[in-house]
Amino acid sequence: MSDAVDAFAAGVDFPLDPFQIEGCEAIAAGHGVLVAAPTGAGKTIVGEFAVHLALQRGQKAFYTTPIKALSNQKYHELAARHGHAQVGLLTGDTSINGEAPVVVMTTEVLRNMIYAGSSTLEGLGFVVMDEVHYLADRFRGAVWEEVIIHLAPSVQLVSLSATVSNAEEFGDWLDEVRGGNVVVVSEERPVPLWQHMQVGKEVYDIFVDGATPSDEADRWRVNPLLMDAVRSASRSGEDGPARGRGGRDRDRRGRGGRPQGGARQRFGGGASRTEVITQLDREGLLPAITFIFSRVGCEGAVGQLLGNDVRLISAAEGERNRRTLEERSAVLEGEDLTVLGYHQLLAGLERGYAPHHAGMLPIFREVVEELFTAGRVKAVFATETLALGINMPARTVVLEKLVKFNGEAHVEITPAEYTQLTGRAGRRGIDVEGHAVVVWSRGMDPLSVAGLASTRTYPLRSSFAPTYNMAVNLVATVGRQTAREILESSFAQFQADRAVVGLASKVRSQQESLEGYAEAMHCELGDFREYAQIRHRISDLEKSGRKQRSATRRAETAVSLDSLETGDIIRIGGRRSGLAVVVIPARPYKGQSGEPMVLTEHKQVRRLTTSDLDGPVTPFGKLAVPRSFNPRSARHRTDLATTLRVKAPHEGAPSIRREAKEAAGGEDARLVRLRQELRAHPCHACPDREEHARWSERWWRLKREQSALQRTVDSRTGSVAARFDRVVSVLVDLGYLDEGGDAVSADGARLRRLYSEKDLLAAECLRAGTWKQLTPAELAAAVSMLVYEPRRDDADLMPRIPTDGLAIAWEDMQERWRDIEAREHTAGLDPTDPPDAGIAWQVHRWASGRRLDEVLLDSDLTAGDFVRRCKQIVDLLDQIAKASEEDRLRSTARKAIDAVMRGVVAADRID
């Protein structure tokens, strides 16, 4: 080892692994480095060496992380090692010693520094990008690429990534844009991981030899005793034969106990949470993290263990945990602790288990993390967010299900997600081995689980796309042409260009096949390709006719929706077919969306869109809707639905089935002519016509594939720069850039300071003075509309707007969003998501000084979600205060920050 690496290694408590030494040596030699290694392998050691080297050389080092919790943890670790005077912390709401030689920060903070030309960047020698694989994140990933591309060439970049199958490709890109980059890949876990499945009360090895097979040929060597147990449990409804791991009387690794008897059949055939945890406790496999893809499920698991009086720690240890939570929660004095989930959390901590999810208060999550890491909590029930966050390893990881909700649908977890989750198992320096346990339930296939556990292909894919803020910052700093060239050097374009090489080769290969098919369909009587073309034109016209009739029908449906009035009675089809009455027509009201709102005879209030209908709707009756009707009131809905069923006329009501059958119009004259041409063509009389036609069909199918591939090649060439041009066209149109898109206007200078996902909408509101008359509480609520993003189907159809002044601002924000959306549609860009007032009422109450329990009353919003949203609101308010040129709005924004940043929101700071 070199002297620099040797001196660093002397201060580490354990001998460095070969990949750590290789990474450190590359840095010492002046190179950038990409280190890809499994979770828990110790890749952060390479980043810490860069920090060590910066201090030795009198340079600065920035250590970036994707989330605040990880930044806080890294700050504590580095401050403990180098002293608080040497280490600073910068996150969205925390600034500690920001000019220190070593600063830990979230990646967005560094990106903003680069665009602002901050003086803090002077003397910067190293940037460590922890969890750099976050650049695949579709919401935030672009930030990582922006930093990598724009960092000064003199800065050495240390990129730390989870194991990905295309690390070399990513490394090649880093070498191209930064120069002198070394790739270090390690696939070896420092603590071996054993894969198991629990069937009933028994735990079986998934693979014959227990460990995850490293040889591709061995990947399907699934334990036959596990297969027998699953077949037995599935067939008989029992929990499987009473054998230990792998069916052995005594586990050959010395961990097994005496076999337990079978358990009664449970719902889904799986073991209960209590059975899983008590079994792990008996076998000495705690501490454990159980991943449950549901916040309610995490809380429910703790409730089940409490209900069964499970205790995993001593009473004395439990009392210590109680005192810790009470001390850390002192800031919550006066809040309704029951609403915050305090009492169940306390009861669980006293017994050695707890939940962990984003819906909890940050204070509570931090206590759970601290106690679990210290070994004072033995079981944590967590959502998958824990796998992406702080260093919180366990001996065992349990997966209850292999299906999760991704925001749109329930989908199976990917091999990469499985590896990320189970990577927490096995603590370096503590455990000899780690364990991953999948809890079997009916319908779960052990072969599929084995495939997940043994798959090693999970490539890193760029999610980079130019944004409005990025565009104005690039044009302002380097000009439009250079900006295009910079964007063409992104990892997204790098991957697209590499893919084009393979696609172009496939296009050439298909051309050879096309020539062979053309020869096979040759006809002596005439040009069969011409004959086949007529056949295809007939087929295409028939299809386009159906599409045209469908498009016309959709347009007619949209017009019919716009024509509906309050009280109109209609019949709708689909899964919830039946009668409905219009309660709000299709006209924007207080900023609401344009679709009409109806109440069905089944008491459901819903927005009616063209996708809900098979065709135009025609009112066939009228019903008086009381002016006092409140769609939120179950009693009001019941009363009106009952009246609808009683008073709706039955004679003359349209039939959904009859309307659906009214489809086609007359036949196109072109079709008649083409069919005549087909019958008159010489090849029509060929005795081998159908044989030629089969080869012709292959030719046409391949020709379509080739044309589609060629279009893909054309679209991917320069695709990132082309999107940049479309973004620029919108900015020019709105006056944020000059006519040529080469210079930033005064409005564009404001946009440069706004980093929200709805950056352009925020800039438009600033320019129009949408918020200038608002109070601090109203401004906080208005900004929440740019921050809040409801889960799918959770959007509030009629959000409560607390004041008339805010209602006016809300209407104006909606109008400006519609204008932006129209321009994006014209430019061929994906539309900006609309503002959402789903939490405006709660934010207004909080900023007005109300207690948290009052704010969350009658709301589905959890305390943790509310606090997280408040932090995002404060961050955007700070950007608005800096971007605005109006003294009053700047002052209001500062007051709004103070009004929001209090109590539990302010408590989530560094200790």
Features:
single chain, 911 residues, alpha/beta, Rossmann fold, 8-stranded mixed beta sheet, 7-stranded mixed beta sheet, 33 helices, hydrolase activity
Principal-axis shape: globular
Summing up helix and strand content along with how strands pair, one would put the structural category as alpha/beta
Give the integer mean of the pLDDT values: 80
Look at the structure and name the CATH superfamily of the domain at 3-185. P-loop containing nucleotide triphosphate hydrolases
CATH topology of the domain at 3-185: Rossmann fold
Query: What would you report as the Rg, rounded to the nearest angstrom?
Result: 32 Å
Give the spatial strand order of the biggest sheet: 4-3-5-2-6-7-1-8
What's the architecture of the domain at 3-185 in CATH terms? 3-Layer(aba) Sandwich
- What's the number of helices? 33
Terminal Cα span: 38 Å
| Share of residues in helices | 40-55%
CATH top-level class of the domain at 3-185: Alpha Beta
Main sheet: strands, sense, barrel: 8 strands, mixed
Total strand count, please?
Answer: 22
Q: Could you name the ranges where pLDDT drops below 50 across 5 or more consecutive residues?
A: 238-267, 588-593, 656-666
Describe the structure.
By secondary structure, the chain is α/β, with parallel strands linked by helices. Among the domains are: 183 residues, Rossmann fold (3-Layer(aba) Sandwich); 182 residues, P-loop containing nucleotide triphosphate hydrolases (Rossmann fold, 3-Layer(aba) Sandwich), CATH 3.40.50; 86 residues; 154 residues, Sec63 N-terminal domain-like fold. It is 47% helix and 11% strand. The chain is built from 33 helices and 22 strands. It is globular, with a radius of gyration of 32 Å.
